[in-house]
């Protein structure tokens, strides 16, 4: 059975900690290890362990073994660009310019880099800018930083 994502992602209503209704857009993109390219995911077939990407009229089906899925954080940068897991962002925190990788940790989305490890939240959106990804632009991170696989 193939689960398709809506054109702009799948939106699910969930309840927050205090019972308030929240909408969370669920969407993914995929780093294809063989083609060395990022694609927008339009569907996931968990029964066959496949990922589907491409345009809605021209789908490509690939094994999940050959891709790294990157989940949308639900946040955007200062230019309105969606922020995904694996993105490299630049921001200014307390007057200090900061660059790091977006990743998921037990309690939520985080950014790690340049001797700083912070929670990724809407409060930082005014200065946050996506400048690349750890897969397409690893050179944007300093050599001391680890690239997560």
Question: Could you characterize the architecture of this molecule?
Answer:
The strands form three sheets. Strands 1, 4, 5, 6, 7, 8 and 9 form a seven-stranded antiparallel sheet that branches. This protein has a five-stranded antiparallel sheet with strand order 13-12-11-10-14, with no helix packed on it. The protein has two domains: 1-72, no CATH class; 77-144, YopX-like domains (SH3 type barrels, Roll). The model is unreliable at 1-8, 10-16 and 143-149 (pLDDT under 50). It has strands at residues 3-4, 10-15, 21-26, 28-32, 37-45, 50-55, 58-63, 67-76, 82-84, 87-93, 96-105, 108-113, 116-119, 129-133. 0% of the residues lie in helices and 57% in strands. The chain has 149 residues and is an all-beta fold. The relative contact order is 0.15. It is elongated, with a radius of gyration of 16 Å.
What characteristics describe this protein?
2 domains; seven-stranded antiparallel β-sheet; single chain; five-stranded antiparallel β-sheet; mainly beta; disordered C terminus; 149 residues
Q: Quick one: biggest sheet?
A: 7 strands, antiparallel
* SSE class: mainly beta
Low-confidence stretches: 1-8, 10-16, 143-149
Proportion in helices: under 10%
Give helix and strand order, one letter per element, not per position.
EEEEEEEEEEEEEE
- Tell me the quaternary state: single chain
**Overall pLDDT metric:** 80
- If helices are DSSP runs of H or I spanning 4 or more residues, what is the number of helices? 0
The domain tally reads: 2
Distance between the termini: 28 Å
Taken as a percent bin, the fraction of beta residues is over 45%
């Amino acid at each position: 059975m193939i689960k398709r994502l809506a054109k702009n992602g799948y939106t699910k209503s969930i309840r927050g900690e205090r019972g308030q209704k929240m909408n969370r857009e669920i969407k993914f993109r995929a780093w294809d290890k063989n083609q060395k390219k990022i694609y927008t995911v339009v569907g996931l077939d968990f029964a066959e362990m496949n990922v589907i990407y491409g345009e809605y009229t021209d789908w490509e089906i690939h094994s999940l073994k050959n891709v790294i899925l990157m989940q949308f954080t639900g946040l955007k940068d200062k230019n309105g660009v969606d922020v995904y897991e694996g993105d490299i962002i630049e921001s200014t925190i307390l007057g200090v310019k900061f660059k790091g990788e977006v990743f998921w940790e037990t309690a939520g989305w985080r950014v790690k880099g340049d001797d700083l490890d912070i929670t990724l939240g809407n409060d930082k959106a005014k200065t946050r800018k996506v400048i690349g990804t750890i897969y397409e632009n690893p050179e944007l991170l300093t050599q001391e930083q680890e690239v997560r696989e």
